[in-house]
Amino acid sequence: MKNIVSLTVFAFLLFSSFTTFERKEVRIRTVVIDAGHGGKDTGCLGASAREKDVALKVALELGQQIQENLPDVKVIYTRKTDTFVELIDRAGIANKNHADLFISIHCNSGPSAAFGTETYTMGLHKTSGNLAVATRENSVILQEENYEKKYNGFNPKSPQSHILFSLYQSAYLDNSLRFAQKVEHQFKNRVGRSSRGVKQAGFLVLWKSAMPSTLIEIGFLTNPKEEKFLNDKANQTYMASGIYRAFKEYKQELEAMN
Known about the structure:
Layout: H1 2-22, E1 30-35, H2 51-69, E2 74-77, H3 87-96, E3 101-108, E4 117-122, H4 128-138, H5 147-150, H6 159-165, H7 173-189, E5 195-201, H8 204-207, E6 213-220, H9 224-230, H10 233-256
Parallel strand pairs: 1-2, 1-3, 3-6, 4-5
Antiparallel strand pairs: 4-6
């Protein structure tokens, strides 16, 4: 109970400071793009494709499109090669560079019949399915040394842990949802993908990011048809272009509010 109260107070104070910041002129100048997994952490697997590889290709393509079309935006990657980056360090990169938006790209895992895209923001999971996705993505910390200490005793197998950590991003929830909705709109209406919608769950990679943040599941590698689609270079470009257009709209919309 003490932890819950402390986190609630923290979220309130963070929200208060954020609303003060929102009154200032908003400019989207720095985006951090995170390719999920990497190195010893392969992520989920298809028959031949690996999540860490597909996520990296889409992340690099997204960054290239932003750099080519929005030269006033600085693009920073958490990784540009097949390397292992701890979850806490991914948010740390975004915070250190004062990012205006954090985008984490992943591939999903599930029954072979499961298909479609999902975009997550940090928050309370409303279904067991949302919790299952967060639990799978968070389990990478078991490959990190001293993870109990670094993540304040977080247990990726405990639903209670996910509830506590979901409070940290509450100050940035509105803009996280704003961007997430634009991503899923692009996937559905421009890329022609099946959208499973915008969802919330407790993702450690979003936990300490001090800016609007989303985690994008671009499809299921465990579905043979989707694996074939996601493992194709042209389709990776299409997926990246959908995220790019969502980012461009998000940037224009926020900056028009000044």
